[in-house]
Specification:
Blueprint lengths: L1 H29 L6 H12 L5 E2 L7 E8 L3 E3 L2 E5 L3 E8 L5 E6 L1 H13 L10 E4 L4 E7 L4 E6 L11 E7 L1
Parallel strand pairs: 2-5, 4-10
Antiparallel strand pairs: 1-8, 2-3, 5-8, 6-7, 6-9, 9-10
Helix pairs in contact: 1-3
The chain binds copper (II) ion (CU).
């Protein structure tokens, strides 16, 4: 029970940080953290990850990248390459019979969210880095990448991440 509360708190913090965007995020970083300590630091890194990027401005989209999600529990393609600073629209199509989703972030964060959703399926979990698709549906997610490196994504439907429904975005200079 204690663990569930910790995970819930983490999710709320994460969603709030994402919702407030980069400016307030930096302001928060420069303030003393009342809870402090190495655990908070580690948690913070897991929430934001180094260079996972942020929701993009739809008017700045330069490319649309199509990804198909299906019941083989794979993203096709599962690896994409973008450039630093580029704003792209991921255009997703769920061609399966099950719900699928795409959440962008560091793998550790995605695993935490997947575990939380498996434990508390009725909890609302909308987030700017998450797109959920019912069977047969399509949808878009606009994202901007601000640092070179690798950003993970995964499907959060129960069991799908563990079955290998993950992918990565390589951000190049
Ligand atoms: Cu899935």
């Amino acid at each position: 029970m204690k663990k569930s509360i910790a995970l819930l708190a983490m999710s709320v913090l994460s969603a709030a940080a994402l919702a407030h965007g980069t400016a307030s995020q930096h302001a928060a970083e420069s303030m003393p953290m009342p809870m402090g300590g190495p655990d908070m630091q580690q948690m913070h890194e897991q929430m934001h990850g180094p260079g996972m990027g942020h929701p993009g401005d739809p008017s700045q989209v330069t490319r649309t990248l199509e990804i198909v999600l299906d019941d083989s529990l794979r993203f096709v393609p599962a690896e994409l390459t973008v450039k630093v600073g580029e704003t792209v629209r991921f255009f997703l199509k769920n061609s399966g019979q099950q719900p699928h989703s795409m959440m962008i972030g560091p793998l550790a964060q995605l695993q935490t969210h997947a575990a939380m959703m498996a434990n508390m399926p009725s909890m609302p979990h909308a987030a700017p880095n998450l797109l959920e698709l019912k069977p047969g549906k399509r949808g878009g997610l606009v994202w901007q990448f601000d640092q070179p490196g690798t950003v993970d994504f995964a499907c959060l439907t129960a069991g799908h991440l563990d079955a290998g429904m993950v992918g990565k975005i390589v951000v190049t200079e």
